[in-house]
């Protein structure tokens, strides 16, 4: 057998061990839905003003859509500069379809994936607001400080308070952005759809649950269980954080998890799952990321608990991809194994697998009334 054939066979065999070189689709449980009330949770229900948004020059070079940069100051001066301003890009299709607005939250330091998704949606005639990366709800210096702490209780309280306040600050700023769009733009009533990647998926999940105007949610390589991520992620900063906390406080794993979850309950997306409709949610995960092998950030435990807490929405798994290497989803081919696991289908897309995810999975969810 030629070396190239042996290599391809080995790759496919390895992929099959991870449910194949595939995307595994888990459909929504029929007849199961949540009722989303119109009120805002108390922690986020504070008086807010419309943002004074500064718009940049309109870029009209693309044939299908125009783009325009924007920025505005946060409602709160936290003293941490990276969190006190919101910047992003507005995508306006030249032939808009329907009345949807898609708001995309990026990963912690990655604007490439969110830009590609925004361009896909805008090219399909959808209005898009893409938020730029840079927001830091849990800076590395705070995580590191616990390992060097001489007063672990005080430092843990400072760290968790920073996280809670930063998330509250960001969610209210996003609500202000919705306020601005509703009162200043045309048409005034748009269907808000939220997409979040990695850290952006955590923020997006919380935002979609808190702001009743959000009608659908798609999270990619993310989870809504912050406490479980902190306890199970293989990321070095999180490992250092939990080991320091357990060792210096003399707590077990479960005791530490409970302590964190209680401390941050007001900004845990899972706290507000009763406000979400599982028929309007799509989860996309990467297998290598979840099993904690090399390219990893979001553990399987957190993702599985999120799926259950969200009411078991549609869940697509890309077993042959990691957290960062999931960018292969922007390549123009993929192999998908729908649920139930019996019919293997090979897709060669005109653009990319990401286009397939948007057109054939998320848009039907977002448009489904």
Structure characteristics:
alpha/beta; two-stranded antiparallel sheet; 369 residues; ten-stranded mixed β-sheet; single chain
Q: Rough shape?
A: globular
Average pLDDT:
79
Helix content: 25-40%
Number of strands: 12
- Structural class by SSE content: alpha/beta
**Low-confidence runs (pLDDT<50, min 5 residues)?**
1-37, 337-345
Tally of helical runs = 11
What does this structure look like?
This protein is α/β, with parallel strands linked by helices and 369 residues long. Helix content is 38%, strand content 19%. The chain contains eleven helices and twelve strands. It has helices at 3-17, 112-123, 140-147, 152-184, 199-210, 226-232, 236-249, 253-263, 287-290, 300-309, 353-367; strands at residues 24-26, 54-59, 65-73, 85-93, 100-105, 127-131, 191-197, 214-220, 281-286, 314-318, 333-336, 345-348. Strands 1-10-9-8-7-5-6-4-3-2 form a ten-stranded mixed β-sheet, sandwiched between helices. The protein has a two-stranded antiparallel sheet with strand order 11-12. The longest helix has 33 residues, at 152-184. The protein is globular, with a radius of gyration of 21 Å. Residues 1-37 and 337-345 have low confidence and may be disordered.
